[in-house]
Amino acid sequence: MSKKKKALSIQTNELIKDFELQGEEIVHVLTGVNMKIKPGEFIAVMGPSGSGKSTLLNILATLETITEGEVRLSGVNLHDTSYKDQLDIRRNKTALVFQNFALIPYLTAKENVKLPMKLRGVPEMEAEEKAISFLEQVGLYARLDHLPEELSGGEQQRVAIARALAHDPDIIYADEPTGNLDTNIGKEIIQLFKTLVKEKKISVIMVTHDPDCAVETDRIYILQEGKVLEERVTSIKKRSSKVEGKKK
Ligand code: ADP
Ligand code: MG
Questions:
Q1: What's the pLDDT score for residue 150?
Q2: Would 225 be classed as within a structural domain?
Q3: Whose CA is nearest to atom 12 of ligand 1?
Q4: Residue 28: how many other CB atoms lie within 10 Å
Q5: Contact by Cβ (8 Å): 205, 46
Q6: Which of 37, 135, 231, 245 is most buried by a 10 A CB count?
Q7: Residue 243 in this model has a pLDDT that exceeds 50
């Protein structure tokens, strides 16, 4: 199960995103975002509502197109690759975790986790074994056959994280993953992400409103009006080892 991963770096260069509304009105959502994320970093993205956080995450996850600028995944221009390559990135390199968990309500925890593997053609037995293992890794071995509605919010988010692991991702994008959870449960989810980053060398890019969650990450990008207003390094240990981050 410990397939060697080629961890991905993420870089955005003057990333611009406009939405054209009906009529001719244009909404300038991202106005020149520059970010550099190393493989295996845990990153928080913060900023006021409407500052473009979700749009940025969706662009990084190739769910949304860009207007100008570029996104590079380990040097490869993400929006200049073929549809097939983008699909490969979506299925095999990245995974998403949402505020509302987005589990399929009529599938059990185990079936929800098996689904991405089935879509990728992983044989039934292997998918079954892996789903159980991923659920065990998120602390839900005792809940394999529960439906989402039979689980607490925190447990549902753990299932969603196990489902993300089923993509065997290099990067997990999480949009306010603790937004619907009580503070303590949210902290447990953050600790789970920290463990995954450390043990599996997965990068996690997480949008959050909660400063207590953000300080648990390695670095915080603060967006305002579609730009990076500020970048804060939170992890002294990492910085002294190799990040050339500027202290603000
Ligand atoms: P955040 O996640 O930081 O709250 P969003 O990225 O969701 O911000 O939205 C940023 C801005 O972009 C908002 O003003 C929103 O109305 C606008 N926006 C987002 N998606 C669309 C869309 N599909 N069409 C037009 N405007 C959009
Ligand atoms: Mg949002």
A1: 98
A2: no
A3: 29
A4: 14
A5: no
A6: 135
A7: no
Calculate the CA dihedral of residues 145, 149, 150, 152 and round it to 10 degrees. Answer: 110
Place of tokens 């913060």: 46
Supply φ then ψ for residue 58, to 5 degrees.
-65, -35
Per the structure, the count of domains in the chain is 1
The reported pTM is 0.91
Task: State the distance from the centre of ligand 2 to the C-alpha of 49, rounded, in angstroms.
Answer: 7
Q: Which two tokens stand for residue 10?
A: 């993420």
Nearest ligand, CA 46: 1
User: Is residue 209 in a domain?
Assistant: no
Which atom belonging to ligand 1 lies closest to the Cα atom of 49? 4
CB contact at 8 A, 233 and 248: no
Question: Can you give the pLDDT at residue 80?
Answer: 87
Question: Between residues 228 and 81, which one has the greater pLDDT?
Answer: 228
43 neighbors 12 (Cβ within 8 angstroms): no
pLDDT at position 247, please?
Answer: 44
What was the pLDDT predicted at 90?
A: 83
Assess whether pLDDT exceeds 80 at residue 108. yes
Q: What are the phi and psi torsion angles at 223 (to 5°)?
A: -95, 140
Distance 66 CA to ligand 1 centre (A): 13
